[in-house]
Design brief:
Chain C: Belongs to the binding-protein-dependent transport system permease family. The complex is a heterotrimer of chains A (296), B (346) and C (334). Chain A is built from eleven helices and no strands. Chain A is mainly alpha-helical. In chain A, helix 9 runs antiparallel to helix 11. The radius of gyration of chain A is 22 Å and the shape is elongated. Chain C contains 13 helices and no strands. Classes of the chains: A mainly alpha (296), B alpha/beta (346), C mainly alpha (334). Bound molecules: adenosine-5'-diphosphate, iron/sulfur cluster (SF4) and magnesium ion. Iron/sulfur cluster binds next to loops of chain B. Magnesium ion binds next to helix 2 of chain B.
Chain lengths: 296, 346, 334
């Protein structure tokens, strides 16, 4: 009805929503708390646990958890607690970098496909669908085995980001498509705004919850992919990421040798991270789509 | 010339006899209250609504979008879902309060006694079922025989009655046009010969020509069936042509109930006056638009008369005292402090 | 089913296969070096398997791929080989043909993944539909949080946990493998029984972790569907709640869910590959793992290609199934 101050109002409204949200959206809040817990472990842990613990041979092998080695040690003499404290942020880092790249590419593709439509839409949506159908892990295996050599955390993130753009592309495209016909976009068009201008100034602010949800799921997918690759041995061999820890524990058959303190802690961390990310993205979905709010 | 003004000019010719007058009351709604409990507070969507429906009568319910029309329709069949709740009131169907029925009793009564043509007619049919099966489904759950020749004949007759070819029975909804879909919905609604048919904006998604055809079909069927109809809408032009009496809703309340002829000739409530005045000039399709001011928030309704922030005749007492829906003229109920009670009739 | 729809789906299938082949061809070449050649030379230098063998491999490899020809010709040769499922020979297990090795492993994977995925999809969808249904029994809602947590654990890590408790600690199931050590694969009843017994834990890890995923997406679809006008009208018709649930809400919500299944297949198979490794299951996942550890490139490329073809086929089947479930689809396209 009243078109003029709508955007300002909308932004302010959003701010208010975010504040109220923490109470109204228990899923979002719980997810943020879980991730905060993970971050705290990675931030405060280094104050108490020296980094030497992740070095091979820094401790006697195969020690059960004890007062000296709180989470025990692995077969090559690394301390599991140190691995968790110094490895978890590496895994998060890979996820965040790859997720950001994925979201960036997905935004460009999604906005262009959704806003301009036509041949561009066919191209980008088609590409996203085809690459979604293909099992990402195998493509990443092909990439990783081909470009073998010293993999760093950064290269791992880049490899994983190769397949992190499809979901953002799809969701953003369909949202843009549904928004394109709304009143205020039409109004902006009539008042002579250019395509990119409309995308940045009209569509983006309204898509914020979707973009945030897309980012979170892209991060989650990237972490899943990187852990999967690492479990195959295709990761930063010299870094104690969670996935590499899983790989080494499989490599040295830790389950059959009853070294539960080796494989259980990384799994627990991975589960906390995934549950946290999942709750955040589900919470953001609720923010974006009020219909999901009931029956939580 | 817009066709609205044409229609306005030829408001229903004076009926020779008004069959509903003096006819027995089939449905009496008393002080119906429905709220939706949203995170931002309770929305009093229907706030003490009363009206009566006589056998064979066509009763119209108009009001802006959000004034509570659909909520009334749904609550009469106990179809309000959380966060909504029927807070109080009665709906007497042949003297029996249907709001106090158990869930199973209510289910049996739906369609068999009161049929509701829900809002959003274009999507009211299950997209993956043939029309025939959607009729059969209803019969089956009401204990009617369905696996016999007779049932097939009934379906054919039913479709013919609403003006559809028999082949439609085997079609899916996406194979039908908008008007045909709405006819199919009407066929389902009358398939058990209900006493009351509630039609919630049955033609809002259709173009004007089809609208008229559908309304004529509905009207014809109503007469042949002898059913009473509650027609919900916001198209005053359509109301003028098809209903006998009209109730005007504003912010969850009925503010005026009058014979349709009187309401167009001499609207009493200031809101009704504005509606009628705004019709031919501003709104092309005769829909309710262009009343100055914003509709009130149902979250925190203004004290006193809900219309007072927008009312041109607002007086001091309007801001404090809620006007009751009372008989102010013969046959005319109005909720406004401008009028004295019609003592003669009261 | 109209021909146009059929052709369009077939085209998508061919497109997927073509992308798979092309990725396999160009990624190695993008790296600048030829990883297969390098690997062969490296092996020749070490001389582990006997120099004679390695030279034979190099010879067959060069003849096969026509490495002296221009790139576009190599590409066409390559596509032709892929079309015939000819992936060359294994580097480490010369002269075994890669397609033969894949053919041995593929049935194990196909059976495991198909059964486990269909079960996870069916149970999860039903469960999710019930969670979204206001009249569902209370215990359904109590089950939701643990299942959702399970869905956050990657298949193979759940597998690890299951092995530790059910196989290692309580000894209810074998620790791994596809059949008893020492027995030979055959079609005898006792072998099939044994194989089924060995597949329970791998399947369970896919199913348990999948149920939550499918339940969650079905719940979303059901909430959307329950708000549809046709469900409200079905209620107004006085239908029994069970009929509304099954024939109106669930029946419609399953349509987008089926599309979601087609899209998730790649993800599911990626997870299954890792499950096989955890369990030492004799499918393509394990074959791939051995190949990665020895950088046996023909196997890596062959497995990737075959798995993508299999997924493309599964997607095609789902696409052809969809018009049966949804009368609108063929109508729109014709
Ligand atoms: N499910 C719901 N949750 C919250 N508020 C609702 C819901 N349904 C309707 N309302 C509110 O109730 C009021 C009346 O709605 P409705 O009966 O649909 O009006 P109408 O049919 O006259 O357009 C509106 O203000 C609307 O916002
Ligand atoms: S009661 Fe007062 S404010 Fe309300 S409509 Fe009548 S005159 Fe206007
Ligand atoms: Mg309505």
């Amino acid at each position: 009805m009243i078109a003029m101050p709508a955007r300002l109002e909308r932004t302010q409204d959003r701010m208010g929503q975010v504040l109220r949200g923490l109470r109204t959206y228990p899923m979002l809040t719980a997810g943020l708390l879980l991730l905060l817990l993970v971050l705290l472990i990675s931030l405060i842990g280094p104050l108490f646990v020296p980094r030497e613990g992740v070095q091979v041979g820094s401790a006697p092998p195969d020690q059960r958890p004890s007062r000296e080695y709180l989470l025990g040690t692995d077969t090559v003499g690394r301390q599991i607690l140190a691995i968790i404290i110094y490895g978890t942020p590496l895994t998060l880092q890979i996820g965040l970098i790859a997720g950001a790249i994925g979201l960036g590419v997905g935004m460009v593709f999604g906005f262009v496909a959704g806003y301009y439509g036509g041949a561009l839409d066919h191209l980008f949506r088609g590409a996203a669908d085809v690459f979604l159908t293909v099992p990402g892990l195998l493509i990443l295996v092909v990439i990783a085995t081909t470009f073998k050599g010293a993999v760093s955390v950064m290269t791992q993130a880049l490899v994983v980001s190769a397949l992190a753009w499809m979901y953002p592309t799809r969701t953003i495209r369909s949202q843009v498509l549904s928004m394109r016909e709304r009143g205020y976009v039409q109004l902006a068009k009539l008042s002579g705004m250019s395509g990119p201008e409309i995308i940045v100034r009209e569509l983006m602010p309204n898509l914020l919850p979707y973009l945030a949800a897309s980012f979170v799921s892209a991060v989650s997918a990237a972490i899943l992919a990187s852990i999967g690759l690492e479990a195959l041995g295709l990761g930063p061999q010299n870094e104690p990421t969670l996935g590499m820890t899983i790989y080494w524990s499989l490599y040295y058959t830790s389950v059959l040798r009853n070294l539960w303190w080796w494989w259980a802690p990384p799994i627990v961390m991975i589960v906390i991270i995934f549950v946290g990310l999942f709750l955040i993205s589900a919470g953001l979905d609720q923010v974006a789509n009020p219909r999901l709010r009931r029956a939580a | 010339m817009s066709d609205t003004s044409l229609r306005m000019g030829q408001t229903r010719p004076e009926p020779a006899a008004r069959p509903w007058e003096g006819a027995e009351i089939v449905l009496g709604v008393r002080d119906l209250r429905v709220s939706y409990y949203t995170p931002r507070g309770p929305v009093r969507a229907v706030n003490g609504v009363s009206f009566t429906l006589r056998r064979g009568e066509a009763f119209g319910l108009v009001g802006e979008s959000g004034s509570g029309k659909s909520t009334i329709a749904l609550s009469l069949l106990q179809l309000i879902k959380p966060p909504g709740r029927i807070e109080g009131g009665q709906a007497l169907l042949d003297g029996k309060d249907i709001l106090s029925l158990s869930e199973e009793e209510m289910r049996r009564l739906r369609l068999a006694e009161i049929a509701l043509i829900t809002q959003g007619a274009m999507n009211s049919l299950n997209p993956v079922m043939r029309i025939r099966d959607q009729i059969i489904d209803a019969w089956r759950d009401h204990g009617e025989p369905v696996n016999c020749r007779e049932a097939e004949d009934r379906i054919r007759d039913l479709l013919r009655w609403v003006g559809l070819r028999p082949e439609v029975a085997r079609m899916y909804p996406h194979e039908l046009s908008g008007g045909m879909k709405q006819r199919a919905v009407i066929a389902i609604a009358i398939s058990m010969r209900p006493k009351v048919i509630i039609a919630d904006e049955p033609t809002s998604a259709l173009d004007v020509v089809v609208q008229r055809q559908i309304m004529q079909t509905l009207r014809r069927i109503q007469r042949e069936l002898g059913a009473a109809v509650i027609l919900i809408g916001h198209d005053m032009g359509l109301m003028a042509q098809f209903v006998d009496r009209l109730g005007v809703m504003y912010a969850g309340k009925v503010v005026e109930v009058s014979p349709v002829r009187d309401i167009f000739k001499d609207p009493l409530h200031p809101y009704t006056q504005l509606l009628i005045a705004s019709l031919p000039s501003l709104a092309r399709k005769g829909q309710l638009q262009g009343i100055p001011g914003l509709p009130p928030s149902l979250l925190s309704p203004p004290p006193g008369c809900p219309f007072h922030p927008r009312c041109p005749f607002v007086m001091d007492r309007c801001r404090v005292a809620v006007p009751l829906l009372e008989l102010k003229r013969p046959n005319r109920l109005v909720a406004c402090h401008l009028y004295e009670r019609d003592e003669e009739q009261a | 089913m109209p021909l146009g729809y059929l052709l369009r789906r077939l085209a998508v299938f061919l497109l997927i296969v073509w992308v798979a082949a092309t990725v396999n061809f160009f990624i190695p070449r993008l790296s600048g070096a030829d990883p297969v050649r390098e690997r062969l030379l490296q092996m020749a230098a070490v001389g582990g398997t006997g120099t004679g063998t390695v030279e034979e491999v190099i010879k067959s490899y060069q003849a096969k791929f026509g490495l002296d020809k221009p790139l576009w010709q190599q590409y066409l040769f390559y596509l032709w080989d892929m079309a015939r499922f000819d992936f060359g020979v294994s580097i480490t297990r010369f002269p075994n043909s890669v397609s033969g090795m894949i053919l041995d492993a593929l049935p194990w994977t196909l059976v495991l993944v198909t059964i486990a995925t269909l079960m996870a999809f069916a149970i999860g969808s039903l469960f999710g539909a019930l969670v979204a249904w206001p009249r569902a029994p209370r215990f359904i809602h109590a089950l939701a949080p643990p299942l959702l947590t399970l869905s956050a654990i990657p298949y193979y890590l759940l597998g690890l946990i299951l092995v530790y408790f059910l196989a290692f600690t309580w000894r209810l199931f074998p620790l791994g493998g596809g059949y008893k050590v020492g027995s030979e694969p055959s079609w005898s009843w006792s072998f099939i029984q044994d194989a089924a017994y060995h597949s329970i834990l791998p399947a369970l890890s896919i199913i348990l972790s999948g149920i939550g995923f499918w339940a969650l997406s079905m719940r979303g679809m059901m909430i959307t569907t329950q708000g549809e006008d046709y469900v409200t009208f079905a209620e107004a018709k006085g239908l029994r709640p069970r009929r509304i649930f099954l024939r109106y809400a669930l029946r419609n919500a399953i349509l987008p869910q089926t599309t979601a299944l087609a899209l998730a297949l790649g993800h599911v198979v990626s997870g299954a590959v890792l499950v096989e490794i955890v369990f030492g299951y004799p499918g393509v996942g394990n074959l791939l793992y051995q190949a990665i550890r020895t950088f046996d490139y023909p196997i890596i490329y062959g497995v990737t290609f075959m798995v993508i073809v299999a997924i493309g086929l599964a997607t095609l089947i789902l696409d052809l199934l969809l018009p049966v479930l949804d009368p609108r689809i063929t109508y729109q396209r014709s």
